Each structure stands twice: as structure tokens, then as C-alpha cells.
Amino acid sequence: MLLSGILLLCSGEILGQVKVSKITSPGDLAGKKGIVYNLPRIVIHVDVTVSKIQQFPGPLAAYAGEFLGVSDVIVKNQVEYRFENAEMIFCTEPDPGQYYIVEKEEKGQGEMWVGFGPPGQTITVETFPKEATPKGFSQWDNGLYQPIDTPGLYSKYSASATRVLIDTIIRRISIDTLTIEEKVLKRSLVAYPDRDKAQETVDRIRRIEDDIYNLLIGYQETPYSKETVEFMYNKLQAERQEYMALFTGVTVRESLVFHYNIVPDPSSESHEYVITGFSPATGLVEADDENKLSVVIQVGEESLPLTESGKDQSPVGIVYRIPVHLPVSLEYRGKELASGTYEIKQLGALFSLPPEFKKVELNLETGTVRTLVIE
Q1: In the chain, how many domains are there?
Q2: Is position 307 within any domain?
Q3: Nearest to 344 by CA among 332, 365, 328
Q4: Residue 175, in any domain of the structure
Q5: pTM, whole model, 2 decimals?
Q6: Closest by Cα among 167, 157, 114 to 136
Q7: What is the DSSP letter of 113?
Q8: By the number of CB atoms within 10 A of the CB, which of 18, 197, 214, 288 ranks highest?
Q9: What share of the chain is helix, strand, coil (3-state, %, to 5)?
Q10: What ranges make up the beta strands (E) of the chain?
């Protein structure tokens, strides 16, 4: 059973009542009966935004200088990438390397009671003498059945006693005399070279420019409102631009977002995590020292992902972490794009409680001890 929220354990008066073992594979659970919990870790989600700019030459680009006197036109297909932005999002997830099982030792003379609070918030493990009954049993039936008359529970059910019925009435009309006139159109195909297309396009551009001029000088002598004039002006300009693009070409801009997940590794010697490289010609490429985008964590002596002895040992009691906050920065080509101080849970020091503890309250969302009783 995987738990999230707060784990509350009571070891009772007998030492060694609760046994804790680390789970490294499903086979470690064979023959064991207990409660499994895990410590959390931080995953850094990095979203990289890149603009892809594509340029396509117009089909009449060869005639732009002759008919429009324009030389600054797109003459070939080309693509360019621009690095726009990158941001970090810190999320918590279960650490697959930090699963533990809590069992009642066979030597224990008492009993162990497990009670669950609100979903995902608390679990209580209580030890008590065999002849006694734990207090938690008296609350098990509270809220067992929920009322079913909650408003909106069945959204598809109508509580109304009436409904609206709509009938369809069809009316037919008869006409004595009906005359149909048939027209025959004759069509033929003629050559339509690009030069003629260019000339016709330029003529349309000139007519649109005349319409824009007449609109601005009030040639139509109609008192249009300001909003109406702006609407017509924008429409004419958009239409003119569409015809001009046949000569000048089209530029298409596309925003691309790439997602990367970075999991800080406690065993890593260097805490610089290279995400990707960037090239204006090809976009995201293999990273090198000149073009890399990376997450850098400044790790100090306070973040030692080991037990108190300096080595990874088998736990004695409940395993917990010491919280640690570290400077984290997102850097591109030596320039800092974002930075801040964040809690990197898996880089905090690991400790285990001594077997003499009587009661411990562990926050599974942070992996830290909230309260502890030792006798």
C-alpha cells in the first residue's frame, strides 16, 4: 500500500515493536506484512520555447521588380530558429529508490492497530495490549454512507414533472404552372502565363489602393462612423497584402514548446544537468560548451544524501530526511535565464530513528519528521 500525506506510528512500550526495512525490488516484499511508505523527490520540468521562422517565395517573385519596382523579396525557401524562453517548474513525485515497509516484529507482545483518516492525509499505527480495544474502532462507522440527494449528483436526470413537447407541422403548396429557363454556358481553356498573372495582380492592387484613397478622402460622401471606416480600411489593407505576397513571399512564424524532465541525482558529482543545445540554423541540437542549456544546482555541505554515518545503511527505525534549500539556476550560453532557491528533497540528508522511539509523525509530502516521542 502506497501512502501519501502524514504517517503516524506508535511503537508501544516494548522496544523493537516496529521493524522498518528498505524495499529495493518487488521480491523484498515476499513474506512480509506491513505498511509501505516512501519518501518524495523533486522533478524539475523545463519548458523550452523556440520560434521557427519559415520564408516561402511568392509565385510571382520574378516579376516584383518589373511590375512593382520592389527588390526586397523572398527568392528561396529558408528556415530560421530563434531561442525565445525557458522556464522551470518544480514538482514532487514518489522517489523510486526510497520505499520502506513498516512491520510489527514477531517478538512484540502487544497488538498493532492501523487506522486511516481522510483520504490521502493520515494513517495511524497504534500498538495496544491484546486484552484491550483501540479507541479508533469506535469511529470506523462514521460517514460510512453518504446521502445520495446531493444537488447535481445526477446531472442527466430531470426533476421536473412536466416537459415541453414540440410538434412538427408540414404545409404543402401546389402550383399549376411552372416555367424553367435553361442556360447553356460554353467554356474554353486558354494559356495564362505568369506574366499575365502578374499584370492582373498588379491591376487589382492598384484598384484596392484607389479604394483606400477614396475611403480616406470621403469620396463616397457617406457619413460612415469611425469604427466602420476603420473596419473597411483594415479589410482593404489585408486584401492588398494578400496580393502583394504573391510577389514578396510569405513568412510563417511558429512557436514550438519542448518539455524536458530533470531529476537531480544524489550520487552525481556535478550538479549541472545539460538539457539541450541550440542552433539558429537547425533548432535544438546536441549540446556542447558553446550552445548548451542547463540546470545548475549549487550543492553545499548541508546537502548530504547519506545516513548519519556517511554510508547507505539498512534502516533501524523510521527513515526521514533533513530538508535542504539550494540555489537553482537555468542558464543558456553562460547567461542566467531564471534562478531561485528551492527545496530539492532528494539532496537532503537521510536519517533513521533509533529503535527506542515510541511515537513518530512523518509528513510523507516532504519526508520530514513533524513530531517525535522517545522514552
Answers
A1: 1
A2: no
A3: 328
A4: no
A5: 0.67
A6: 114
A7: E
A8: 18
A9: 20, 40, 45
A10: 6-10, 18-23, 34-56, 78-104, 111-116, 122-128, 250-262, 272-279, 283-285, 292-297, 319-321, 325-332, 335-343, 350-352, 357-363, 368-374
Nearest-10 Cα torsion for 152, 156, 157, 159: 60
pLDDT per residue, tens digit, the chain (375 aa), is: 455 556 666 554 444 467 888 888 888 888 888 888 888 899 999 999 999 999 999 889 899 988 888 888 988 889 999 988 889 999 988 898 899 888 877 765 666 565 555 554 445 555 555 666 655 555 545 544 444 454 554 444 344 555 555 666 656 565 666 655 666 666 777 777 888 888 999 999 999 999 999 998 888 888 889 999 999 999 999 999 999 989 998 999 999 999 999 999 888 888 899 999 998 888 888 888 888 899 999 887 655 544 444 445 566 678 888 888 899 999 988 888 889 999 998 888 888 877 666 677 777 777 777 777 666
Query: Cβ-count burial of 236 within 10 angstroms (0-12 exposed, 13-18 middle, 19+ buried)?
Result: middle
In one-letter notation, the amino acid at residue 227 is E
- Domain containing 207: what range? 51-84+191-254
Write out the three cell numbers for 290.
Answer: 558553446
38 falls within a domain: no
